[in-house]
Design brief:
Layout (H helix, E strand, L loop, with lengths): L1 E4 L3 H16 L1 H20 L6 E3 L2 E5 L5 E7 L3 E9 L12
Amino acid sequence: MEVIYHRLIGKDLREALDYYESEGGTTLADRFFDETEVTVAKVLKNPRGFPFEQRDLRRVQFKTFPYHFLYRDLGFAVRFHVLRHDRRHPSYGMRRR
């Protein structure tokens, strides 16, 4: 299955990595990045296995970090729209298409 990332996912990821690196060093930032990859793999394994957040966007929660992805199952691909902190405003990233 193809993976498509919104162009601003890189910005979302960089902000989170910078934060964890400044707070806990490279090891913590690496753990966050590893969990990002594991979470994407979980979605690819079962794209319809996670609940809808809003409209046709599904939400997958990270296991140990307070983050989640909102994504859309396109059938032939999964399009990740936003990487968002759990306490970020609920409308963050919702205008992305």
